[in-house]
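Consider the tokenized backbone below.
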């Protein structure tokens, strides 16, 4: 039975999980991190398609990371999306991994992925060994006393800077589009709840507005190795500049929070400012306002600030270096 037959039959329950490319789901199942009652294949649910117009970009949830990254319209109108995808994983994984699956990949926190350890996200109430443990890769923004894990994906960081939305078909029928900013949930006391999705909800499309800022967007990723590594910190920016004045700015951080982190105060500070290094450095500092280190991850505060500043510089004055830091 494929996804929409299951939804039409009204049967998906809390134990039902969908599979798209399987690059994250199967790893979690093999390691006994999750054990769904039922796995439903989304293949055949007609969730492909890349449509670019002067108004918006629509990405089918089953489009692969590789195909979206290589699409000429995406590269022209929303370059940060292409850059974020090309800086993700490996060619093999990008050939399998999908848009919907990338939004929903689980954290790479080593304690979450190893059942020998307690973990509030895996077993609510069992504790968080990362808080006093190995937390070099953990969150500096949006974390709680229950969980300090980061969201590991690159692609939704670019989406967040461009004000994207997620189209969701509910188990009971009907499709709604939710702003990405409202799609993820911060951990609070319930780190096991990561999004607003209800059992049986299927992501069908991702919708990204077209804009001059999106055309001038940049994704900057900082990691331990120059390929096949998750972000320690990353920044996506989308800015519109006229006569050296900033008319619009979208800024989001990755690798530093439990969700792609929108830096609204930094965005506001840039509107009307001269597009120069001083303004971009100021925005970098504002982007991490409220950051709190857990111990080994204190370095991420300066790293994220520099990633934002470098991404803004690159967007304002493009070089061949885009995406490499
Ligand atoms: C070694 C390695 C390195 C990696 N490096 C990076 C990296 O640097 N950056 C990065 O961003 N990613 C990285 N990844 C992660 C990879 O990008 C994701 O595994 C991939 O995007 C997941 O997509 P998928 O289609 O395979 O998802 P699946 O594994 O099929 O599913 C993942 C989750 O999404 C749910 N799901 C999938 N599609 C839908 C839908 N349409 N509606 C509702 N639920 C859905 C599934 O139920 C499941 O819970 C890496 C992965 C590996 C293994
Ligand atoms: S940081 Fe979150 S995912 Fe990691 S061990 Fe703590 S509760 Fe689990």
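A designed sequence for it:
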């Amino acid at each position: 039975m494929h996804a929409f037959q299951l939804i039409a039959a009204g049967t998906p329950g809390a134990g039902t999980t969908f599979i798209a490319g399987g690059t994250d789901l199967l790893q979690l199942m093999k390691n006994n991190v999750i054990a769904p009652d039922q796995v439903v294949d989304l293949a055949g649910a007609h969730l492909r398609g890349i449509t670019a117009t002067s108004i918006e970009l629509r990405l089918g949830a089953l489009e692969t990371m590789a195909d979206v990254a290589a699409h000429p319209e995406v590269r022209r109108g929303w370059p940060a999306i292409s850059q974020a995808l090309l800086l993700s994983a490996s060619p093999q994984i990008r050939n399998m991994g999908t848009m919907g699956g990338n939004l929903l990949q689980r954290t790479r926190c080593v304690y979450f992925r190893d059942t020998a350890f307690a973990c509030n996200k895996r077993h609510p109430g069992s504790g968080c060994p990362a808080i006093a443990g190995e937390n070099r890769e953990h969150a500096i923004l949006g974390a709680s006393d229950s969980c300090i894990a980061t969201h590991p994906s690159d692609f939704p960081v670019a989406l967040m800077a461009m004000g994207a939305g997620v189209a969701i078909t509910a188990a009971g029928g009907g499709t709604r589009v939710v702003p990405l900013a409202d799609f993820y949930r911060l951990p609070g006391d319930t780190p096991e709840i990561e999004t607003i999705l209800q059992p049986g909800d299927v992501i069908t499309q991702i919708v990204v507005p077209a804009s001059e800022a999106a055309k001038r967007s940049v994704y900057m990723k900082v990691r331990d190795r120059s390929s096949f590594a998750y972000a320690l910190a990353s920044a996506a920016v989308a800015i519109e500049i006229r006569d050296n004045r900033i008319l619009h700015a979208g800024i989001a951080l990755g690798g530093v929070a439990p969700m792609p982190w929108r830096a609204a105060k930094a965005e506001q500070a840039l509107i009307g400012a001269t597009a120069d290094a001083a303004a971009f450095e100021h925005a970098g500092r504002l982007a991490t306002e409220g950051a709190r280190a857990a111990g080994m991850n204190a370095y991420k505060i300066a790293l994220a600030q520099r990633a934002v500043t470098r991404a803004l510089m690159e967007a304002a004055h493009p070089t061949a270096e885009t995406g490499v830091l």
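The chain has a mean pLDDT of 95.
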